[in-house]
Amino acid sequence: MAPPLAWDDFRLIKAIADHRGLTSAAERLGINHSTAFRRLGQIEAALGTSLFERHRTGYAPTPAGEEMAQVAARMEDDVAAFSRKLDGQVLAVSGELRITTADSLFNELLAPILGRFCARHPEVRVDVVLSNQPLNLSKRDADVALRATDDPPDTLVGRRLATIAWALYGRAEDGAEAPLAARRWVSLAEGTGAAKVARYVAARAGPARIAVRLDTVAGLAEAVEAGIGIAPLACLTGDRRPGLMRLSAPEPDLAAGLWLLTHADLRHSARVRAFLDFAAGEIARERHLIEGREPLSAPR
User: In total, how many domains does the chain have?
Assistant: First the structure.
């Protein structure tokens, strides 16, 4: 009979299976490589079976390793669900609040809102995760997400706060007279989570006139201001920069919903509820900017 296994044993096997190697798995768990190597050997010895095949390209789980990793995943889900339910019962506006959003939304919208929220609720410690790819709120990667999306996950609850308008922008000093067909463009890469922006540029510029591709929305405005080329920008970003001007009206095909989301188990948590209500009220005051209701000739 195999000896009982600890939760940390399952976590290690899952991390190795996820990362296909010891080094990344050890970093994920906050341990060193030699500790991970030693623990894996101890687990395999205790079970009397090999959990991974060692290759030059990495660690491939055996059927036993795959099954242990799947058990660990189910255990993680159960632990996360239990943690969410406990947090949902906390009545005090205090403790850690983990928020995820894209870098561009943080820079242009969320940062000042967080400043005012923290001043009002000093007992809340905010942890911000900037990611252009959505994190898994079901696994407690974050408590709250501010996302640009037209299709929020069914597992989350929240509210649509506004429609993020996008338009085409160039440098004000370059004017609007030059035909778009003669201009160079800046584009987003396809895998950034804003694929429709990349498709918009590709349809109008073609590969020959795309000077630079970026993997982050936050860098688009800087690239346009630097004179690299013209690009679609969220109006919230472009209209605030005196050195830029709109070259088009807001493009309906580029619009996206702005959602404030959390997991259903957390919506009654006092700190989550306090942030959701506060952020929604603050964002409502910025809605005219988010939705691009500035005339093309507005002074800058």
Answer: 3
Sign of CA dihedral 79, 85, 88, 90: negative
The model's confidence at residue 291, banded by pLDDT at 50, 70 and 90, is: very high
CATH of the domain at 199: 3.40.190.10
Is 297 within the bounds of a domain? no
The answer on 69 and 15 residing in a single domain is yes
Rounded to whole angstroms, the Cα distance separating 54 from 61 reads: 9
8-25 pLDDT, tens digit each: 888 888 899 988 888 888
Residues 148 and 281 grouped into a single domain: yes
The CA distance from 11 to 246, in Å, is: 51
Please name the residue that has the structure tokens 């037209």.
Answer: 150
Distance CA 58, CA 149 (A): 36
CA 43, CA 14: separation in Å to the nearest integer? 13
Q: Residue 133 falls within a domain, yes or no?
A: yes
Domain of residue 34, residue span: 7-87
The number of residues in the chain equals 300
∠ at Cα 25 (40, 192), nearest 5°? 155
Digit-coded pLDDT (tens) for 187-238: 988 765 578 888 999 888 878 899 999 988 888 999 999 999 999 999 999 9
